[in-house]
Specification:
mainly alpha, single chain, 5 strands, two-stranded antiparallel sheet
């Protein structure tokens, strides 16, 4: 069964003139550059670099004064005057491509950034993710997570650009594009009746049928997911059969998948976390049942971990060990969800400590050496590289050479950035630097990256080269 998508955040509308937009862009650029250049901020996400590049491109458009004469796309209305339809066609043709959603080809009303750094209109990318897709539609890059971040800069640029040309951009209304099915009283009655059967039906066949129906109802309708928040014991009833040790595998899968489905509804995340045994039952499901059950349990934990408070709770409940076991098994159906969940949990500092204690460094490095899901696992290794014990384990496990090999062999700039950032963190002693120095004499890997890499890669590579130069000076002096 295809996974449902994860919940999204709500963007705010930013108004103002073109000069104010340029000023806002400059302020945003200063903030982003400070984050990027802060040597203490080794774990700043790659998306920060992308946002800075996007801000620069947007500022360039402002400086060029938007030479296009007018712009809009389907769904953009023109205020005032007659003959507006002809003008709509004209401005549609001249609309800057960066203002159009790559999926809908329409001007974006609610632009959001996904894990690959690409920007889409929220309802269209959400529909893509809701079908179970785990890749970026444009780059085909496997997404490390499915959260959506509002792109305020692009939204402001679209607003200013439309305002300058007398174009009225209707407010975002995703439900008008992909409407949920409205619930009638009979639907609500059916929902609560199914919950009763799942919770207390005597016949197993009746219990299974009710669980399967709930799974289908919660798959595509957020209105049904919201019903779990209207009843104080709805979740308790759903979870009750999971407390039985010999629960049939198909019933187990349907219930865990339903829990995944309802976890993507924003208001349910805190509710699920506060429901006794909910998170422990998901953690238990990581270790037994069908492979789909285990995959969906990992996906549910990833979804719940969108809340910082849930990251702590999930980590304290012991989820990282079983998640790392799933990574170690390397079943392709589970790897993506397990890797995404581990990454999200390791954003929390306390969970990094737990992950290192559970052997995350060995598991992740082993998979990277096997060239398995490198693009998913490197960001997590980058997070862990701030931990002293993790740095020691990376060195002991041949991490320096492994990362240098990835830099040489991969064509993915994000992977190169993560590798060089990790190397910059761990190569602080003469012993580690000499290992890099030998590689540098043979292949010139770091020097090449300092010349041809992204700005972040170049900065880290040059930092390592400076250390190597100081090492040479020390050796000659000695």
């Amino acid at each position: 069964m295809a996974k449902t998508g994860t919940a999204t955040t709500t963007a705010t509308t930013v108004g103002g003139s073109v000069p104010s937009a340029a000023a806002e862009l400059r302020r945003e650029l200063k903030r982003l550059l400070k984050t990027i250049l802060d040597e203490e901020e080794e774990n700043c996400g790659i998306e920060v670099i992308d946002r800075a590049q996007e801000a620069l491109a947007a500022l360039r458009d402002i400086k060029a004064n938007f030479s296009s004469s007018a712009a809009a796309a389907a769904g953009v209305g023109i205020e005032g005057g007659e003959g507006g339809g002809d003008k709509e066609v004209e401005v549609m043709a001249s609309c800057p491509e960066r203002f159009r959603c790559p999926l809908s080809k329409q001007v974006m009303r609610d632009p959001v950034v996904i894990a690959s750094g690409q920007t889409y209109d929220r309802p269209f990318i959400q529909k893509w993710l809701n079908t179970g897709q785990r890749t970026c539609p444009q780059t085909q890059q496997v997404l490390s997570h499915r959260l959506l971040a509002p792109n305020h800069l692009i939204k402001e640029m679209i607003s200013d650009w439309c305002e300058k040309r007398g174009i009225k951009l209707p407010a975002a209304n995703p439900s008008s594009v992909f409407p949920d099915v409205l619930l009638m009283k009979g639907d609500r009655d059916s929902f609560f009746s199914l919950l009763e059967k799942v919770s207390s039906a005597m016949l197993m066949t009746e219990k299974k049928a009710a669980a399967k129906e709930l799974r289908l109802m919660t798959k595509g309708n957020s209105s049904v997911r919201a019903l779990f928040g209207e009843s104080s014991d709805a979740l308790t009833k759903l979870l009750r059969p999971l407390s039985v040790r010999d629960i049939p595998c198909d019933l187990h899968e349907d219930l865990i998948t339903t829990l995944l489905n309802i976890s993507i509804y924003d208001s349910n995340r805190k509710l699920i976390a506060e429901t006794p045994r909910a998170i422990p039952m998901l953690i238990e499901a990581l270790s037994w049942g069908t492979i789909q059950t285990r995959s969906n349990a990992a996906a549910a934990l990833f979804s719940l971990s969108a809340l910082d408070s849930n990251k702590v709770l999930i980590g304290e409940s012991g989820a990282l060990g079983p998640l790392l076991d799933l990574l170690e098994e390397a079943n392709p159906l589970v790897m993506n969800d397990a890797a995404a969940a581990v990454y999200n949990l390791c954003i929390n500092h306390e969970n990094r400590e737990r992950a290192v204690h559970e052997g995350a460094v060995v598991v992740i490095l082993t998979k990277i050496k096997e060239n398995s899901h490198v693009d998913l696992l490197l960001p997590t290794l980058a997070l862990l590289s701030s931990h002293r014990k993790a740095m020691e384990e990376m060195t002991e496990q041949g991490g320096v050479q492994c990362l240098l090999n990835v830099i040489r062999e991969t064509s993915c700039q994000r992977n190169k950035e993560n590798c060089i950032a990790i190397l910059y963190s761990i190569c602080t002693t003469r012993t580690k630097l000499r290992e890099v120095q030998e590689e540098e004499h043979l292949h010139g890997t770091i020097s090449r990256l300092a010349e041809e890499g992204t700005s972040r890669s170049q900065r880290k590579a040059n930092g390592i080269l400076s250390r190597l130069n100081r090492l040479d000076d020390f050796t000659h002096t000695a």
